[in-house]
Every structure is written in structure tokens, then in C-alpha cells.
């Protein structure tokens, strides 16, 4: 959008400079005065153009800086959120692993007891 504004302003300034130049050329003055007026008008137009260029450049620079800061803030928020979610997943996995270890220990104990009972039956039979 800033580019369109700059282009529009440039077109207006160019049109104004051309119009002023044509007006001066058709004015009933001597060549020296006409050249002087053209030179002054050219310098005015150049100053206006330089001023607008500087303002547009500063505006774009400011917008770019704000966009960069906004991006960095959102990136930091996203990374922080992902870190918390990763921690939650790790805790859930650790809890599940502990439950599986307890279940495995229980099954091993039951298997040992069953084997002992089978051995005892064989020994008494």
C-alpha cells in the first residue's frame, strides 16, 4: 500500500512539474527569467520528491521493524507453548512407562508363584 501511495505522489509531483514547466514556457517573459523559473521549480519539485522519499523510506523501515518484532514475539510464544506441550507429553509417557513396569513386575511375580505351585505339585505327587 505504501508503494501505491509513493507512486501516486510521484505521479502527482511529476504532473505538477510538467504543468509548471509548460506554464512557464508559455509565459511572456525573457528566456533568462524563464530558465530561472524552470530551475527554481525543478529544485522545489526535487526537494518535495526527496522529502517524500525520505518519509516513505522511514515509514517502510518502521513498518519492517514492527513486523520483525511482532514475528519474533509470535515465534517466542510458539516455541514456549511447544516446550510446555513437550514437557506434558514426556510426563505422560513417564507415567505410562511406570505403570507398565508395575504391571510387568506383577506378571513376573504371578508367573514365579505359578511356577512354584507347579513345582510343588510335582514334588508332592
Automatic annotation (TrEMBL):
UniProt keyword terms in alphabetical order: Membrane, Transmembrane, Transmembrane helix
InterPro entries: Desiccation-related_membrane, YtxH
Region (Disordered): 30-65
Domain of life: Bacteria
Regions that span the bilayer: 6-27
A matching Pfam family: YtxH
Protein name according to UniProt: YtxH domain-containing protein
